[in-house]
Amino acid sequence: MPIDAAPLAPGDPVRVVMSKWGERAHWEYDAIYLGSDEHGEWIGCPTATFYSRPGLEFVAAFAGVVCKPAGGAAHLACFNDEHAQAAIYVDMTTPPEWDGTTLRAVDLDLDVVKRQDGTIYLDDEDEFAEHQVAFGYPAEVVAMTERSAAEVLAAVRAGEAPFDGTAATWHEVLQRFGGGSASVASS
Q1: 164-175, pLDDT tens digit by residue?
Q2: What are phi and psi of 106, to 5 degrees?
């Protein structure tokens, strides 16, 4: 088990709470703790997971698994089944941390996206630039976010683990808890 792992067992309910800089509310959702491996801790978001943030909410028509990276990396990666627009969606964040059974991170705007057709890109650079000024991101947070985005983008493009299909195993675990899709898009 990774050193920064939560004291959770597979199947335990967890909550994911993302905020924006300055403790502004952002995405929140309930999930299932799946386990851990050398890449980090994995949680499952079954089809019909309810996602909400101020001004927007939806019930997912897709299943996903989320990896809280080992070693305190500054991102949160979601690997979706074929029903989502994005096969991989990685939020650049402060290093995600457990607060009991709640996983917390501050979303720092930049996202690495791999669409189902294989297109890979960095998203929300304009929002990141605007928020640096509007929210007063410290220089070290800007540098961490840019470094994390560059590393994740390179890893997704190269198909490095866990962006190499590793998530399929965790989708199978999610299925055993009754929450996954039978097929997962190729990572």
Answers
A1: 999 999 999 999
A2: -100, 120
**pLDDT tens-digit map of 128-147:** 999 999 999 999 999 999 99
Tokens linked to 39? 């890449």
What CATH fold (topology level) applies to the domain 13-169?
Answer: FomD barrel-like fold (2.40.380)
Q: With CA atoms as reference, report the closest residue to 163 among 96, 118, 109.
A: 118
Question: Two tokens at 35?
Answer: 């386990």
Beta strands in 94-152 (DSSP E): 97-99, 102-115, 120-123
Q: What is the mean pLDDT of the chain?
A: 92
Q: How confident is the model at residue 82 (pLDDT cuts 50, 70, 90)?
A: very high
Would you list the domain boundaries of the chain?
A: 13-169
DSSP-derived secondary structure letter, 22: T
CB 48 within 8 A of CB 59: yes
CA distances (Å), 94 to each of 11, 53, 89, 107, in order?
26, 18, 16, 7
Q: Which residues contact 89 (CB under 8 A, 6 or more apart)?
A: 77, 78, 80, 111, 112, 113, 114
